[in-house]
Design a protein that fits this description.
The structure holds two protein chains of two kinds. By secondary structure, chain A is of the alpha+beta class. Chain A is 31% helix and 25% strand. Chain B is of the alpha+beta class. In chain B, α8 crosses α9. Chain B contains nine helices and eight strands. The chains are: A alpha+beta, B alpha+beta. At the A-B interface, α1, α2 and β4 of A face α1, α2, α6 and α8 of B.
């Protein structure tokens, strides 16, 4: 394109400039990729998690907005439509046969239908969704508090994390996420089946998605079909507690 | 050099200008801010659009966009739009491959797109910057630096005095002799502005983007007019720091780079001789 009409001198200058910057740029990336550097940088996540857990009341609520504050359009992100015949069949039947398994370190494993979930006490909240990329959208969510489901299943004291398994496959694996018990039992942590007074659209995670309002968007697992209480995240996926955490090193604690 | 002159010139008088905490903080902060800027530009690349208010995403009106069309890159601010092909929105990387990320690889950490890595750098060095700034602010206040060197005296606030200093700077007429040992009004206001306004503003707007901290300090959202406003102010303040840096470097170059840099390394500053000396 515009390269072709560049005067010769400029082309040479540009080529020279690129050649000169190449070693510097690759040196920068070598630093970025060095395991020791990554270990040090990861201390930032631990400091953020520890300080936020220390400073923020465990039940402090994310801001709730009014209907006047709603985004005109709530942007979906990640999977818009899970692939596969099984999900398509669920969607075709209005998710009548969708089940959410509650397993792991629980006294009473459960298998909840959408009807079970809708007949439990509901919470409606208008909250802001903050994507790790930087954008925000405000939506109204209705669903059941995760703490009620955990109480119904009788989560054991040995459980330290809740793992959310999803029906959407991204590349080589199914999406999943996890959180600690503080966020799992937080009053605004709900499994939502409605957005803005309508049944949750498929693009936003139908029939059921997590809302974990004090963390970034990738923690809000969509298409949830299983909830597992565990003592450790080792052995689940690559052990870092989430699909993106395993693959590209997003922070597991996404409160900032 | 002195051997060539007939009579030995007495060495210029030296003053101990920068104490150790200032020197340590200066260089630590210089490196940290560079990392913060470059990793911040990487994070911006993930969503190169800015909004005012609480929310803002692709379908909402952005007041600033760095984007690309089929064959050009552009920057749009409000209704003003400028083509930026080669620098912003559409550029060629070191391997000669055309890219459409907002800021080019030579300006970001890391050089190829990784929001996760950009955040790792940004959120670690945010601690370095915040702790360093806090300690330095305390030291300037308690150690007397603030009162002795940065305190703006009443007579310095007069518009005439400030205007005079602006004119002197514009004409590149810098104070000489003893007067150069002290900070002028513009220097004082710049350093106070950076240390006590811009850097704290960067930290506060950064924290306002944290959904975790929003729960315990929702007043931050009100202070800045919402999360997306805080993100916009964070971006603007970052460029204000870049502007300070550019003027700072220009002034160092004009005032004598060797003497200035040496004084920030050793602490000792050689007073420029009086004009008629």
């Amino acid at each position: 394109m515009s390269e072709i009409i560049l005067p010769r001198r400029q082309l040479i200058a540009r080529a020279g400039g690129l050649a000169a910057t190449l070693p510097l740029l690759s040196a920068c990336d070598a630093i970025n990729d060095a395991p020791a550097v990554r270990k040090i940088l990861s201390m930032g996540e631990e400091m953020n998690r520890a300080s936020q857990r220390a400073l923020i009341d465990r039940n402090a609520l994310a801001r709730e907005y009014s209907r006047a504050d709603l985004s005109p359009y709530f942007r979906p992100n990640g999977t818009r439509l899970p692939a596969g015949a099984a999900y398509a069949a669920h969607a075709a039947s209005g998710f009548a046969d969708w089940r959410v398994a509650v397993t792991g370190l629980v006294a009473r494993p459960l298998s909840l239908s959408m009807a079970d979930i809708r007949t439990m006490p509901q919470r409606t909240q208008i909250t802001r969704h903050d994507c790790v990329e930087g954008w925000s959208a405000i939506g109204q969510w209705t669903g059941v508090q995760l703490s009620r489901i955990l109480a119904a299943a009788g989560v054991r004291d040995s459980a330290r994390y809740i793992v959310f398994r999803c029906a959407d496959r991204l590349g080589d694996a199914l999406y999943y996420e996890s959180c600690d018990m503080v966020d799992a039992r937080h009053p605004q942590t709900i499994l939502a089946w409605a957005l803005n007074d309508a049944v949750l659209p498929i693009a936003n995670g139908a029939p059921l998605r997590l809302r974990i309002e004090r963390q970034l968007g990738y923690k809000h697992a969509k298409y949830v079909n299983a909830i597992e209480a565990v003592a450790s995240l080792d052995g689940i996926g690559a052990g870092k507690g989430g699909y993106w955490e395993d693959r590209i090193d997003y922070e597991w604690y996404a409160g900032i | 050099m002195n051997e060539a002159t007939p009579a030995p010139v007495p060495p210029p008088p030296r003053v101990y200008r920068h104490r150790l905490p200032t020197r340590i903080w200066h260089w630590l902060n210089a490196g940290t801010l560079l990392i913060m800027l470059m990793s911040g530009l990487m994070i911006f690349n993930a969503h190169p659009r800015l909004y005012w208010g609480e929310y803002g995403a692709n379908f909402d009106r952005a007041w600033l966009v760095i984007g690309s069309t089929a064959d050009e890159g552009y920057l749009r601010i409000g209704d003003w739009r400028v083509e930026t092909t080669g620098v912003l929105g559409r550029w060629t990387n070191a391997e000669g491959v055309e890219k459409t990320w907002a800021f080019p690889g030579w300006a970001t950490i890391p050089t190829s797109y990784s929001l996760a890595d950009g955040r790792r750098w940004h959120l670690f060095f945010a601690w370095v910057m915040a702790i360093g700034l806090t300690l330095y602010m305390l030291w300037t206040a308690i150690g007397g630096h603030l009162k002795k060197d940065l305190h703006v005296r009443r007579d310095e606030w007069s518009p005439r005095h400030i205007w005079h200093d602006i004119k002197d700077h514009a004409r590149l007429r810098f104070p000489r002799g003893e007067a150069e040992a002290r900070y002028g009004i513009l220097q004082k206001l710049s350093y106070i502005g950076v240390i006590f306004i811009l850097l704290p503003l960067m930290i506060a707007t950064g924290l306002t983007m944290s959904p975790g901290l929003n729960a315990s300090a929702p007043w931050l959202l009100d202070l800045f007019g919402g999360r997306q406003s805080a993100r916009s102010i964070h971006f603007i303040a970052a460029w204000a720091l870049v502007a300070f840096f550019l003027v700072h470097i220009l002034m160092v170059l004009l005032a004598g780079p060797v003497n200035e840099v040496r004084s920030m390394v050793t602490g000792w500053f050689r007073l420029p001789p009086e004009k008629d000396a």
